[in-house]
Amino acid sequence: MSRVLSTEQAKAAIGQVQSIINGGFTDQISALDAQGRILSDPNIWDGPLASQFRGSTWPETKAALDKAKQELEELRTQLQKISQDIFSAGGGA
Question: Sorted alphabetically, which keywords does the UniProt record give (predicted)?
């Protein structure tokens, strides 16, 4: 038989991770995206370094941010399911 353990400390940590994700981390990623789009407009910012930013720096960074945001959402969902399963099995709330 496999061990199932979920302490109050685990419950609190799960809540904190979800709170961080829900409480603004993904919003901060969206805010970075908005600023990156502004800086990608040659009518707002131009020159050799701005062109490099538009051509490679920002597209690569945006892809990484999008992936991080997706993975954070998946983590939040997984933690919710795991938490429910463990606490239901253990009779916790």
Answer: Coiled coil
